[in-house]
Every structure is written in structure tokens, then in C-alpha cells.
Amino acid sequence: MSSHATIQASALIQDRLFIGGDMVEPESDDLLEVISPATEEQIGSAPSATPADVARAVRAARAAFDNGPWPRMSPQERADALEPFADHLRSRVPQIAGLITEEMGSPISFSHQLQAPVPVMLLDYFRGLAATFPFEQDRAGLTGTSRILREPVGVVGQIVPWNAPLILTMVNLAPALIAGCTVVLKPAPETPLDAYVLAEAAMEALLPPGVLNIVPADRANSEALVRHPQVDKISFTGSSAVGRRVAALCGEQFKRVTLECGGKSPAIILEDADLDSVVPALMPYAIMMSGQHCLAQTRILAPRSRYRQVVDAVSQAAAALTVGDPHDPATEVGPLVAERQRRRVEDYIASGRQEGAVITVGGGRPSRLAKGWYVEPTIFADVESRMRIAQDEIFGPVLVVIPFDDDNDAVRIANDSKYGLSGSVWSNDQDRALRIARRVRTGGLTINGYRIEFGAPFGGYKESGIGREFGPEGLSSFTEYKTINLPNGTAHGQPG
Fold this sequence. Notes:
By secondary structure, the chain is α/β, with parallel strands linked by helices. The chain has helices at residues 9-12, 51-67, 75-81, 83-91, 93-104, 108-115, 117-129, 165-179, 195-204, 219-227, 240-252, 275-286, 307-319, 339-354, 388-391, 407-415, 430-439, 471-476, and strands spanning 17-19, 22-24, 31-35, 42-47, 136-140, 145-152, 155-159, 182-186, 212-214, 233-237, 256-260, 266-269, 299-303, 358-361, 378-381, 398-404, 419-420, 424-426, 446-447, 461-462, 465-466, 479-485.
């Protein structure tokens, strides 16, 4: 039986929006059609929220924040209230994995490993953080004692992308709820269906009405959420181009904003690295989700003395990847999310050829797959850092290998990017790798591997975003500071 056979038909066809704690009728009959990237056929649909629907959701969130119990509960009470929410998601992991694979073509093995369980891990992490986060703290100052409060920022509008929809939802939804905020969630039009699992979880957990609202919408109607004057903060994950527009709109209203945007991350392989261990460890994260993730290590920087060795090793690894049906557990590279995405990737491949780079593997569509928006894993050699394929976020299974002369040259090339989100350094000399990592202008790196740590801040430099997610810093971004200066003579200490 295929993995998607366990998905109930009702999960694929949605006709309501989740507003104010109930499933309600939308204002229009407009639909978001969900198309399978593997078959190019419609598999489901969801309502396309109008600006009036968005406004209704914001009113529900505003009422829940201004008058409801959620912001007035203690952080631990909110964490406890979210326990059945987490348990519902935990019980649905296999179904969630299959649903996300249906929606956006994530290989089912990856969906089972990360797409479905990581949202639960994130929620559990932030629920645990509620007990230790300094929501109130007394501080001795120059003139007396002050009580520093961390209060919820208010109504949060959350806009999430299609590539890791529930992970990237929970990255900000969990800390927002723990902080005491209320949320209007706008899923991506390509992947609206998995968000309804959150609506089920909210109803099962008996969250107060309006604490979580879910309004799928197309890009044109998403702006209504950003512009709404009763939204206090926008949390956006997506492209840098759209992030720039979101930031501009938020700036007009002094609206708080967190942006997690694009990347073109370097993997710096030093000459002493063992390629037999480096390449197998690197490749899964370079072409994970067909390269459709902002952290993809898509710029491989190789020492000129070993350049051909690196190109050959990476090319052989790419050629060995299994491309095919995302529902097949053996598949390592599935389709791209949409036809427009495949056209974009193919345009970049053509650009690389025109600029003089050489394709060593791939470059086309898999001949045996007549249906589906597939692109072969593609490796470019003889790449210069100025080329478009080395500068732009392609968001597909395309890697470039760039030579460098020495450590200074490697750092120069790594920093020759408008992005600064992730990266890695590979060497047998950990101290040397750490020295290089310190010099790369990026929000996070891993030495001799690839890892995201939920307890540490995550985010980017330059056009990769504004603000940080994960860890206490991620929770902090959903709070505002308030200082209460206590009467003179008040003893300094932690508030009771």
C-alpha cells in the first residue's frame, strides 16, 4: 500500500476557514487548487481567503488578545494548555508525512524523518522553555531597582512558505503562543492542507477562541494581513524579494517584523578534508528537498589543488541519487513544487551554460519520468563567483563548485554573496575550520557536518533576513520589554 493511502479524503478537500475557534464559511467560492508535483493532477483544494476573511480572522485574534484569557495566563499555564495540541500532532505524524508529500513532493522518507516530527519537537522545546525564560526579572540599576517584564507583542500575522510548511509554521507559532500572543496563520497557496491539522489540534486542545486562526490565501490577498492595522507583528518566511516588500509595509506602521529569507550557503572544503567522508555527509543537505530549502549548501568551495577531485566526487554522488516518485521510500530527490519552479531552475541551468560553466552531471529532465516537475540533480564545474548560478538562490537541485587558492580566498568567495544564512567548513584541523567560520558573514555554520540546533539562535545576515528564530532568542522576538521602576528601598531580587 502506498504511503498516501492512509490520508483521508476529507484531509484533501477543505471548504472552511478556521476563525475564532470554529470552522467557518469563507466569503467567496474561490479555491486554491492543490496540484501533485509528481502527477501534475489536482489532489485537493482549500478556500482562498479574501481580504474580508483576513479581517475577520484579525478581529478574532484581536478580541482574544485584548479580552481573552490567553495573554493573562501564566507561561506555564499556556505550556500546559498546549500539551494536548502537541499530543494530537504526535499521534498524526504518519498522516502528516503523507499529506506533505502529496502537497509539495517531499520524498516520503524525508517527510517521515523531518517534515512531520520536527514540528512536535519544536512545540515541545518551547513548552519546556516556558519554565525558565525570564518573563520577569528584577535588575539593580544606577538609581534603584527596576522590574523588567517581557510581555507578548500582541496579534501576530504569520506567513509561511510551501517547502517545509509545518516545520516553518511551528518555528514561530510555538514561541508566539508561549509568549501569550494570538496568531493569524496564512499558509502557502501550494500547501494549504497540512495547516488544517493545526486547526484540529487547536480544537482538541480547547484553545480559547481566536488564539489561532488559519486563513489560506493567494499572494495577492496575503498583503491584507501585512497591512492590517490591528496586527502588531508579522513573521514571514520566504524569498528575499517578498521579504523586502513585507518589511517596507511593516515599516510604514512601525509594525514589528521577523524575516527569514533566502540563502546561497557555502560549503568550504579545505585541502586536508577526507572526501570519502565529506561528500556523503554533505550531499543530502546540499540537495535536500530537491534543493528547495534556504539552507541548502549550494556553493561548494574547493581548494584549487584538489578541485578536480572534489568535482569528480560531488558529480559521482549526484549521479547516484535516486530521482523518482516521492511516495517511494527509496526516492532521494523528488519533483519541484510547481511547473513555474521547474521553469525557473531550467532557466538558471541555461544561464550557467551561457556564462561558460560546465555541467558534469544532470542538466535536464529525467527521461524515464513522463509526468511530474522533475529536474535532474545538476553539478556545475568551472564556476566563477560572479556568475548568476553562483550568486542567485536557484531553489532547485543545482550545485556549483568554485575553486579557491587559500583560506583568505575561501573566505572572500564565501562572503561574495548578498545572502548570509548558513554554511559549513570541512577540515581535519578543527581550529583552522573554526578560524574560517568566524570570518564568514553568515548567521550559522557547522564544522564537519550540517546541523540546526533548536536551542540556538537561527537567522541570517544581509538579505537572508532580520531577527532570529529558535532558542530563547526566538521566544524573545514575540515579546516587548516593559520597565517598571520600583520604589526606592526595594530589595533587588527575582520577583515572586
